[in-house]
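The data are quoted verbatim for reference:
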Amino acid sequence: MQNMKQTDSNTQDLRWVAARMALLLALLMLLPQSMAQAQTLTCANTVTVQSGDTLSSIAEQYLDNGGNYDLIIQSTNAKAATDSSYASIGDANQLAVGMKLCISRSSTSSTSSAAPAATARPAAATAATSVPTVAPTPASRVNVPNTDVLAISWGRAQKYPGSAINIEQTLAPGANYNRYYASYDSEGLKQYGLLTVPRGEKPATGWPVIVFNHGFIPPDVYKTTERYIAYVDNLARSGYIVFRIDYRGHDASEGQASGAYGAPDYTFDVLNAVASIKAYPDADPNRIGMWGHSMGGYLTLRSMVINKDIKVGVIWAGVVASYPDMLNRWRRANSQQLPAGVPTSGRRWRQQLVEDYGTPEENPTFWNSISANSFLADVSGPIQLHHGSADADVPLEFSETLDAQLKAAGKTVELYTYQGDNHNISVNFSAAMRRTIAFFDGYLK
């Protein structure tokens, strides 16, 4: 009996060893394949993270779909396993300036398929990709017969009453200014923003104001108190109230994020913010300026030909071209992908406008009517432009052309170009900011 028990025990041990050996053999067979994949991974693009970048915005730029950021994580982590110069990404929301990312050839090719991304964006972002023209029209909008909602004349016919600004939360203060999480009303939608107010003795007429229009950040990853921190800090330290607004559908702000170029919604949010800050007790209603970056530059120029309350504007790397140039000349030089400043719905506004009104060659009257560049004789104040010569997202020629157009219209304009600098003017940030503040000081103080 004892010998039989011993035999059973030995048999069990042998089976356990055999199972382990089989598992080990299977792993050894897979190892060369995985090692080969790591060794042969080729990066179609190597990207160095710049200030303001997110994985979604990089995926938007290189993969034509912000929801495919997971593919960048996979390829970068795989590359990091064999090349330590690449980043190891553990948290998609924790990018750092200078990180080296890999966009693999397989990631690039996978986006050409009709199949959905492996990790889809949250449902809120799906709404942002709908065609702007199908969004319901708020009852408060003024009907202008036979005029498209993008026409400058239509924008001038609208009302932008704004509202009282409510302080929702007091944030940690800055060096010489207070910071608040604030809200206001735009077309019945509660909009949020970051509000800074200088400390110290208030001028007799109130503090000068800068309404701050940020560039494109995927609405599903945008946070009111994140990004553009150094930009806001420099302006706020210089004795300005700064109101950095969200736009609808961003973070907690109500409404649908429809994009800037195919719908007037963001322009309403900007001009309602102007009206709101104009009535703010600590603000001087006659000293309001505006700053904009990229898409925010588009909104700044547009606002300045619609509203006379904006006394001066500064635009960094702005989408400040006419609509015909935006339609025909806004493409990455090495591909057919849209630049980072354009949401996925970017193709749709182009397609929709051409389908509805014909091409600029077929219908120049319409295309001129929606371009702020056609109304520069009415611009509300001096404009300063900044642009990097190596901007891969928005062409330098947009700023150069606007500079020439403003001069031809007899307007005050300054243009600074930064050789070899990028979309965020990261290399020459300090110089650009000094010039920005000096320009605002010259016209608002």
Remarks:
- The radius of gyration is 26 Å.
- Residues 1-7, 30-39, 106-135, 332-347 have pLDDT under 50 and may be disordered.
- The domain at 139-444 is CATH 3.40.50.1820 (Rossmann fold).
- The chain has two domains: 43-109, 139-444.
